[in-house]
Specification:
CATH topology: CBS-domain
Distance between the termini: 45 Å
CATH class: Alpha Beta
Number of strands: 5
Number of domains: 1
Low-confidence stretches: none
Length: 150
């Protein structure tokens, strides 16, 4: 299974921020859209990722508020990325190694979407459920052995 399989099911709604917008505005978008991350884009290029982890670390660093902090100061400026052709097993390994919950999907320099650890886990469970159903159907339809030739 590839990342493109997840994106096909998930759809293509993308939420982004710019590095020079106020962090408070980005947090408001995340809250209103009930999303855990924003891709940070500047001049059409991916420059960072803002997740609730970076937001919380910034709030703690600033004594409980975001104040006038810009997205640039809070974002992860070296986010983990994959392509739509990356195998799901590789994505799981990458996300686990870096403790990443969200990963932008890039095809060359074009942002194709964002997948979450939840999306990956759901795809794996759905795939396993399908495989289990197929195996059970196969077993149920197993032909009876002909014992008359013994």
């Amino acid at each position: 299974m590839k990342v493109s399989d997840i994106l096909r099911v998930k759809g293509n709604t993308l939420y982004t921020a710019t590095p020079d917008e106020p962090l408070a505005k980005a947090i408001q978008i995340m809250s209103e859209k009930d999303i855990g991350s924003l891709v940070v884009m500047e001049h059409g290029d991916l420059v960072g990722m803002l997740t609730f982890r970076e937001v919380i670390m910034t709030v703690v660093k600033n004594g409980g508020s975001v104040g006038t902090t810009l997205v640039r100061s809070a974002m992860d400026d070296h986010p983990l990325t994959c392509t739509s052709e990356t195998d799901l097993d590789e994505v799981r390994r990458m996300m686990l190694d870096r403790h990443a919950r969200y990963m932008p999907v890039m095809n060359q320099r074009m942002l194709m979407g964002v997948i979450s650890f939840y999306d990956v886990a759901k795809a794996v469970v759905d795939s396993q459920n399908f495989e289990n159903k197929m195996l059970k159907a196969y077993i149920r339809d197993w032909p009876e052995e002909d014992n008359s030739s013994n």
